[in-house]
């Protein structure tokens, strides 16, 4: 049985899910892959200690603090590959960003491979079931494109801005996986600056 609880955040309605003592989900309203990692769809609205702790974590995060995700018992469900990528996401510092390519390089090193596709990493990042706390919003394209956030580009920008990230060199792709699902990003020459949003 999965217990769920609602949380109203500055970036919209959030649904939290727990299984026993662990947090297994945090999804924004309308998020792609909502609840997709859970093996069953039986959700029961119920407050549990871990859901209360997650709400307290979010209260502190949105009030400008930098709470440690390790305070919470996180148990995202996914393959070993996805678990390894999500572990790397937890190491991205508050207020910083990294690229899909940089994560792919780290994954290749961990697996003893000469290289790895950034797209494979992007799939794992996009399926992160515990948004915000496992900070997939801190991953951008190598050229500064704000692609791949299942919660929406505006939400990604809002979270990065909240953390004080300099958005000057980041941009919203006019076409790509984050917006039109066309499979790629336009060259930065056709970009729309992210800092003009909101």
In short:
With about 200 residues, this protein is α/β, with parallel strands linked by helices. The chain is built from five helices and eight strands, in the order E-E-E-E-H-H-E-H-H-E-H-E-E.
Q: Helices and strands in order, then pairings?
A:
Blueprint: E1 2-9, E2 12-19, E3 22-28, E4 43-45, H1 49-62, H2 80-89, E5 98-99, H3 100-111, H4 118-126, E6 139-140, H5 153-162, E7 171-172, E8 192-193
Parallel strand pairs: 1-4, 5-6
Antiparallel strand pairs: 1-2, 2-3, 7-8
Question: Overview of this structure, please?
Answer:
It is a single chain. This protein has about 200 residues and is an alpha/beta fold. About 30% of the residues lie in helices and about 15% in strands. β2 and β3 (about 20-30) form a beta hairpin. α3 crosses α4 (about 120-125).
What is the spatial order of strands in the main beta sheet? 3-2-1-4
Distance between the termini: 39 Å
Order of helices and strands: EEEEHHEHHEHEE
Low-pLDDT ranges? 176-198
Overall SS class: alpha/beta
List keywords for this structure.
single chain; about 200 residues; alpha/beta; four-stranded mixed sheet; about 30% helix; about 15% strand; disordered C terminus
